[in-house]
Amino acid sequence: MIKRFVTLGVVAVAMSGCGSAPESTDLPRVDLIEEAVSRLGEELDYFEVAADPSGVTLVVRLVEVSADDGTDSGVFAEVHRFEEGTLARISEPVEADGAYFSGADIDLDPSGIFDRVLDELDAATVLDLAIQGSPEGRPVYDARVRGTRGGVLLVLLGSDGRILGVQAE
């Protein structure tokens, strides 16, 4: 799902003049990701873990194993939501396929993940942060960012908040 990224310089020019930085209360609740994953299971595989300003959505990868021969007979996704200290399943499992990662591999600095985005993209509003699986089974971090002019960008991040690439959504 990672598409080609344009150079940061072009995006920085497009985003310039975008007002002041958002309050920390407007930011996605990345501070809840560790607790949400811990409650559901760090040993589990996830298709996606996403934080928005009110909580965290977790898409768990489930593998059905045949009782007859122990082989995998299907892969499913089940969605959970962690909000206000409560973890709840919000969908029944559905057939799924795609890249995934282990919850134990999430290595995110919640205190500084958005610092560079807010500084370098000139006061953008961070809409959400998604952690998705790569073909190699590692987590990939990206944030959706909106400028005051209305444009939305997808920003590929390192786990420390380093900007790796940007593209218009």
In short:
The protein has 169 residues and is mainly β.
Major beta-sheet overview: 10 strands, antiparallel
Which sequence of SSEs, written as H and E, runs from N to C? Answer: HHEEEEEEHEEEE
The portion of residues forming beta strands comes to 35-45%
User: Quaternary arrangement of the chains shown?
Assistant: single chain
Q: How many strands appear in the DSSP assignment?
A: 10
From the helix content, strand content and strand pairing, which structural class follows?
Answer: mainly beta
In helices, the fraction of residues equals 10-25%
C-alpha geometry: elongated
- Domain count, please report it: 1
- Residue-averaged pLDDT, rounded? 84
Contiguous runs where pLDDT drops below 50 for at least 5 residues: 1-24
Number of helices: 3
Distance between the termini: 12 Å
If you compute it from the alpha carbons, what radius of gyration comes out, rounded to the nearest whole angstrom? 17 Å
Summarize the structure in words.
13% of the residues lie in helices and 40% in strands. It has 169 residues and is mainly β. The protein has one domain. Strands 1, 2, 3, 4, 5, 6, 7, 8, 9 and 10 form a 10-stranded antiparallel β-sheet that branches. The chain starts with 7 loop residues before the first helix and ends with a strand.
